[in-house]
Design goal:
Elements (H helix, E strand, L loop, with lengths): L5 E5 L3 H13 L3 E5 L2 H8 L6 E5 L7 H9 L9 E5 L4 H9 L4 E4 L4 H13 L9 E4 L3 E4 L4 E4 L2 E3 L3 H12 L5 E2 H9 L8 H14 L6 E4 L3 E4 L2
Helix pairs in contact: 1-5, 6-8
């Protein structure tokens, strides 16, 4: 029996919540809807959904606050998040990405596009076709099968986007990858995000790598590379 992946939906407008839920169910997902942050976090203490579709405007706490709490939680920090919001301005989209969201969809939206984005984010969790482990220096180990990164023996919690960027950069050390190439690796033909998205994820990745952040170098006007 095939186990369906569960998608959590936090959206306070019943019509939109139902639309998202039905669209995902028609495409083979299980769904669980919540109308506020409190009920969602109570659920999160007992269950681990495959992905969260998160509205920004909620009655008790906004989506930005929910995203911050998830990314700051040791066990929940890697939960993929797609923000669903009426805020279409670039500053709001970048803010969501800076807080750790993996993608965003603006209202009004196409249910087909939302489902496509959900599938794309989940696909990025699948094992890569590269070799199982990449070892950089003595301290940094990227385990592509377990989807884990360890630094000096300590696990680093990366979002899916951060992991996939580190994966492609480390696949060819010294090779310069353009922002478009990195976006292709993240999204393929379904990419519909701005180039600045890559810069945001790179900055977060460097912060998490700490003493090894120097490995990722910016080639001005071209893109990024990983070089020991």
């Amino acid at each position: 029996m095939i186990v369906k992946q569960r998608i959590a939906i936090v959206e306070d407008e019943p019509d939109i919540s139902e639309l998202v839920s039905i669209s995902l169910q028609k495409n083979g997902f299980n769904t669980r809807c919540f109308f506020n942050g409190k009920d969602f976090f109570a659920y999160l203490e007992k269950e681990s959904p495959a992905l969260l579709v998160l509205d920004l405007m909620l009655p008790d706490m906004d989506g930005i606050e929910i995203c911050k709490k998830i990314r700051g939680h040791q066990l929940q920090s890697v939960l993929p998040i797609i923000m669903l919001t009426a805020r279409s301005e670039e500053t709001d989209r970048v803010l969501g990405l800076e807080l750790g969201a993996d993608d965003y969809v603006t209202k009004p939206f196409s249910p087909k596009e939302l489902v496509s984005r959900v599938k794309a984010v989940l696909r990025r969790q699948l094992p890569s076709s590269f070799s199982n482990r990449i070892i950089i220096g003595k301290d940094l180990i990227i385990d592509l099968e377990k989807f884990e990164v360890t630094l000096s023996g300590q696990k680093i919690d990366l979002t899916i986007s951060e992991f996939k960027i580190l994966e492609i950069l480390s696949s060819k050390k010294g090779w310069v990858f353009t922002r478009d190439k990195i976006l292709d690796h993240l999204w393929g033909e379904e990419k519909a995000v701005i180039d600045r998205t890559v810069d945001v994820h790179i900055r977060h990745l460097r912060e998490k790598l700490g003493k090894m952040s120097f490995l990722i170098k910016n080639v001005r006007g071209v893109g990024y590379k990983l070089e020991e």
